[in-house]
Amino acid sequence: MTRKVLVLGEVRDGSLRNVSFEAIAAGKTIAEGGEVVGVLLGDSVSALGEQLLHYGADRVVVVEDEKLKQYTSDGFSQAFQAVVDAESPEGIVFGHTALGKDLSPRVAGKLGTGLVSDVTALEEAGGNLVFTRPIYSGKAFEKKIITDGIIFATIRPNNIPALEKDESRSGEVGSVTAEIKDLRTIIKDVVRKASEGVDLSEAKVIIAGGRGVKSEDGFEPLKELANVLGGAVGASRGACDADYCDYSLQIGQTGKVVTPDLYIACGISGAIQHLAGMSNSKVIVAINKDPEANIFKVADYGIVGDLFEVVPMLTEEFKKLKV
Ligand code: FAD
Questions:
Q1: Exposure check for the chain: N or C terminus, fewer CB within 10 A?
Q2: Beta-bridge partners for 302
Q3: Residues near 63 by beta carbon (within 8 Å), at least 6 away in sequence
Q4: pLDDT digits (tens, 9 = 90+) for 116-155
Q5: CA 315 vs CA 213, 226, 260: distances in Å
Q6: Given this model, what pLDDT does residue 55 score?
């Protein structure tokens, strides 16, 4: 069965987040040969439509309104509903980001449809679309089939590969008018606490520090390694609780869930709540003084040693490879 699928392009600081392109790839699978329509909501975002086309959208629909300059649950859900009313989709895909996690249940609620969230894989099997998602903090995976209504999914960043960018692809970038009213939240200012540089939830490489880094300054060698590898710095809750870094870096059950290609855990013991946020990383390297540390159970490569010796050595070696 072919379907029309709406895919939300998520805009941050004037650029599309990578997960938008991954969502288009998921949208293609759900469409099963039908149409994938990119959706952009914002103040002046239509220029980004072309990029959604390059990554596989067949057409793009934009809702522009100054009330959409900053994300609000009320504003974006009304704007998205206007697109749904105009397009009558059979499928919807968002990124499983902070925005997607907030918006998707509202949209699903308004539509009276179900939602399969945090999807890490999607395949066609036996005539069904099968969605895989982690449960019990990543200790198990469940497979879901949607039998009725709109197929609505949020996809975890860094899991479903985006299609190859093709700049020769073109298509219509149209607009939909939405009446956005009764906003209960007015955003006056946005103050970012997160570190500048690579976004943790979309980073391909993460260097994470735990209580073993011992101080705020102890994160410096980790930052250097992250710079050399073009990665982001993350942390355990132990490091955040000890005030070595900001909570925006926390990875785990009550922090961010990440799936980078490479996760280097430095001075992290590997508590179950930490593993819940990173154990699906593609390659895990653990550096710890304690050979019995739990983190080694999930690591692909383990280095028993002092992180203050090992991390600078790695940085120097990676620098040599880059020259
Ligand atoms: P520790 O357990 O103290 O481990 C420090 C490690 O550093 C040790 O293994 C030690 O051998 C090693 N080390 C010390 N010095 C060096 C050195 N020089 N070189 C190399 N290694 C060294 N935790 C999270 O991370 N994320 C969460 O989201 C989270 N959510 C939680 C939710 C709940 C409800 C609860 C109860 C807990 C949660 N926790 C979470 C906390 C979690 O249980 C652990 O307490 C925390 O992960 C421990 O952090 P850590 O590994 O940095 O510290």
A1: C
A2: 286
A3: 39, 40, 41, 42, 79, 80, 82, 83, 175, 176, 177, 178
A4: 999 999 999 988 999 999 998 788 999 999 999 999 999 9
A5: 16, 9, 19
A6: 98
Which residue among 222, 273, 289 has the greatest number of ligand 1 atoms within 8 angstroms of its CB, and so is best to mutate?
273
Q: Is any ligand 1 atom within 6 A of the Cβ of residue 237?
A: yes
Collect the ranges in the chain with pLDDT lower than 70. Answer: 193-197, 323
CA distance 278 to 190: 28
Q: Is any ligand 1 atom within 6 A of the Cβ of residue 255?
A: yes
Which class for 161: exposed (0-12), middle (13-18), buried (19 or more C-beta within 10 A)? exposed
Residues belonging to the binding site are 211, 236-237, 250-254, 267-274, 288
- Whether the model pTM is above 0.90: no
269 close to ligand 1 (CB < 6 Angstrom) = yes
| pLDDT value, residue 190 | 84
Closest ligand 1 atom, CA of 308? 18
DSSP state of 248: G
pLDDT score, position 239 = 98
